[in-house]
Amino acid sequence: MADEAGGASIQLMTGQQHTAGTPQQAEQAALQALVTQAPEVQEEAVREAAESNCKVYVANMTWWSTEAEVEALCSEYGKVVSIEFIADRSNGKSKGCALVEFSEPQAAALCKDKLQG
Asked: Which UniProt keywords apply (predicted)?
Protein backbone atom coordinates (compact mmCIF):
# COMPACT_ATOMS: atom_id res chain seq x y z
CA MET A 1 0.00 0.00 0.00
CA ALA A 2 1.29 3.51 -0.73
CA ASP A 3 0.70 6.76 1.10
CA GLU A 4 0.15 10.24 -0.35
CA ALA A 5 3.88 11.02 -0.34
CA GLY A 6 4.64 7.95 -2.45
CA GLY A 7 6.23 5.92 0.33
CA ALA A 8 5.17 2.46 1.35
CA SER A 9 3.19 1.95 4.53
CA ILE A 10 2.10 -0.98 6.62
CA GLN A 11 -0.84 -1.18 9.00
CA LEU A 12 -0.04 -2.96 12.24
CA MET A 13 -2.83 -4.67 14.17
CA THR A 14 -2.16 -2.26 17.03
CA GLY A 15 -3.47 0.50 14.80
CA GLN A 16 -0.04 2.06 14.32
CA GLN A 17 0.76 3.17 10.79
CA HIS A 18 4.39 3.04 9.71
CA THR A 19 5.42 4.89 6.57
CA ALA A 20 8.69 4.49 4.73
CA GLY A 21 9.91 7.76 3.22
CA THR A 22 12.80 8.24 0.84
CA PRO A 23 16.00 6.26 1.38
CA GLN A 24 17.76 9.49 2.43
CA GLN A 25 15.11 10.18 5.08
CA ALA A 26 15.39 6.62 6.36
CA GLU A 27 19.17 6.81 6.57
CA GLN A 28 19.01 10.14 8.41
CA ALA A 29 16.46 8.77 10.89
CA ALA A 30 18.59 5.65 11.47
CA LEU A 31 21.68 7.74 12.16
CA GLN A 32 19.76 10.00 14.55
CA ALA A 33 18.42 6.97 16.41
CA LEU A 34 21.90 5.53 16.90
CA VAL A 35 23.20 8.83 18.21
CA THR A 36 20.46 9.14 20.84
CA GLN A 37 21.16 5.75 22.44
CA ALA A 38 23.70 5.33 25.22
CA PRO A 39 26.85 3.47 24.06
CA GLU A 40 26.37 0.55 26.48
CA VAL A 41 22.78 0.07 25.26
CA GLN A 42 23.98 0.12 21.65
CA GLU A 43 26.68 -2.47 22.32
CA GLU A 44 24.31 -4.85 24.12
CA ALA A 45 21.62 -4.53 21.45
CA VAL A 46 24.11 -5.10 18.62
CA ARG A 47 25.63 -8.12 20.41
CA GLU A 48 22.16 -9.60 20.89
CA ALA A 49 21.32 -8.99 17.22
CA ALA A 50 24.55 -10.65 16.10
CA GLU A 51 23.77 -13.69 18.25
CA SER A 52 20.37 -14.00 16.56
CA ASN A 53 22.00 -14.02 13.11
CA CYS A 54 20.71 -10.49 12.44
CA LYS A 55 17.09 -11.69 12.51
CA VAL A 56 14.26 -9.69 14.05
CA TYR A 57 10.81 -11.05 14.90
CA VAL A 58 8.23 -8.55 13.64
CA ALA A 59 4.70 -9.14 14.92
CA ASN A 60 1.27 -7.52 15.24
CA MET A 61 0.87 -7.13 11.48
CA THR A 62 -2.32 -7.86 9.65
CA TRP A 63 -2.35 -11.31 8.05
CA TRP A 64 -2.57 -9.77 4.59
CA SER A 65 0.65 -7.70 4.95
CA THR A 66 2.88 -8.26 1.93
CA GLU A 67 6.59 -8.87 1.67
CA ALA A 68 7.01 -5.53 -0.10
CA GLU A 69 5.28 -3.67 2.74
CA VAL A 70 7.39 -5.37 5.42
CA GLU A 71 10.56 -4.74 3.42
CA ALA A 72 9.67 -1.06 2.97
CA LEU A 73 9.06 -0.72 6.70
CA CYS A 74 12.20 -2.55 7.80
CA SER A 75 14.55 -1.18 5.15
CA GLU A 76 14.31 2.17 6.94
CA TYR A 77 16.77 0.67 9.43
CA GLY A 78 19.18 -1.14 7.11
CA LYS A 79 19.51 -3.60 4.24
CA VAL A 80 16.94 -6.42 4.43
CA VAL A 81 18.35 -9.77 3.31
CA SER A 82 15.23 -11.93 3.66
CA ILE A 83 11.71 -12.01 5.05
CA GLU A 84 10.07 -15.22 6.25
CA PHE A 85 6.39 -15.03 7.13
CA ILE A 86 5.16 -17.37 9.87
CA ALA A 87 2.16 -19.28 8.51
CA ASP A 88 -0.67 -21.09 10.25
CA ARG A 89 -0.22 -24.83 9.67
CA SER A 90 -3.92 -25.49 9.25
CA ASN A 91 -4.72 -22.95 6.54
CA GLY A 92 -1.37 -21.62 5.29
CA LYS A 93 -2.28 -17.96 5.98
CA SER A 94 0.19 -15.64 7.64
CA LYS A 95 -0.13 -15.35 11.40
CA GLY A 96 0.69 -11.65 11.12
CA CYS A 97 4.34 -12.02 12.00
CA ALA A 98 7.63 -12.55 10.20
CA LEU A 99 11.34 -13.05 10.71
CA VAL A 100 13.26 -10.27 9.00
CA GLU A 101 16.96 -10.84 8.37
CA PHE A 102 19.28 -7.85 8.06
CA SER A 103 22.76 -7.63 6.54
CA GLU A 104 24.25 -6.06 9.68
CA PRO A 105 23.56 -6.51 13.40
CA GLN A 106 23.39 -2.71 13.88
CA ALA A 107 20.41 -2.55 11.50
CA ALA A 108 18.66 -5.44 13.26
CA ALA A 109 19.19 -3.82 16.66
CA LEU A 110 17.89 -0.48 15.42
CA CYS A 111 14.81 -2.06 13.82
CA LYS A 112 14.00 -3.95 16.99
CA ASP A 113 14.44 -0.85 19.11
CA LYS A 114 12.29 1.41 16.93
CA LEU A 115 9.42 -1.01 16.27
CA GLN A 116 8.95 -2.17 19.85
CA GLY A 117 5.84 -1.06 21.69
From this structure: RNA-binding
